[in-house]
## 1
Amino acid sequence: MHTVSEVSLKYQTQTSFEEKPVISSPEQAHRFLKKIWDSDTIELREEFVIVLLNHSKKVLGWSKVSTGGPFATIVHPTTVFQLILLGNAASVILAHNHPSGTLKPSLADIELTKRLSKAGKLFSIGVDDHLILTRDNYLSFREEGLMKEG
């Protein structure tokens, strides 16, 4: 007889529902991301973070998905959706930094956003926004009209 491991999921929050911050605008997202981002590396290497939200836009948690070099980081959609699904999120905010200080999204940034938005639709999970951060500023894909799916 073969022994097969049981797969189980567990979710336990460490804060009360009332204590969870709400993110319903790009400005709120930027403020939240600035608090969690390592200011010592924002101009050093590119990093990609997701913020998990419930249906009320309250933050369930966040996760650093990837860390790269000064010009890019690799983001696998499978990794992103593992975290979203395990975190029981209704929607997600994507974010990454540009160490160069430029806020202009690359073609790769736009394509990744489209792919993740399209994948999210399969699970009824919204991609609310994608922010590019620099030390002093940010760009919101939603505000720039770049949240169209491919």
## 2
Amino acid sequence: MCQLLGMNCNVPTDICFSFTGFQKRGGGTDVHGDGWGIAFFEGKGVRMFVDPQPSAQSPVAEFVRNYPIRSLNVIAHIRKATQGRVALENTHPFMRELWGRYWIFAHNGNLPGFQPDLDGMFIPVGDTDSERVFCWMLQRLRRRFGAQAPERDALFGALHGLSCELADLGIFNYLLSNGDCLVAHCSTELAYIVRQSPFAVAHLKDEDVTVDFSDVTTSKDRVAVIATAPLTDNESWTLMKPGTLLMFHDGEVEAHRDTCC
């Protein structure tokens, strides 16, 4: 299976510390060696880096690790292929436009036999179940709300319904963001931590790196980090219950629902 990493903040923040540990899981400390990718929202734009090489050996990943891009919403993914060959077009995260915004999606799991009818508005480029389900979700959102983007609470309710529809089809852990909020669905495993004042020292599990967040933040900063498995060994992460959907906004959980329908 793949692994996910997300970040949602109330002020633009870099993800260098978390990505340092996450990068090592892509063929270093773990077996996810079939590609990696990361997307940063900056205003209405998105910087995206994808590479079919293992992240632990990727020069592009090393560049990202050392380049402090500041963003309110970030989604990253390291791949262990289940459907689709190892190729650039099958490398997460995936990006599409809807309602004048870029949307970013990454999936950890497997949805065998999922072949939805697509009307042509959103079409997969690669051959993964992940990109198919992303296109299907955006198609359903467009059909439901038409040409007008919904408010966050209505969007969350719609995503809850779509997640329920897929709950019994396979493993469906995912991260989704439109640059305003970040939605996380736990099918089997996902964890998160909200860092805020008073900030403390954190130490990575996958590499001997420590940071004192009180040295690099202000008292008003708030940062939520979401990952398939906790990235640090000296902090209290919250393990999401399988079958739950969370929406993060401004670095905290804004909405929560069960998806075990």
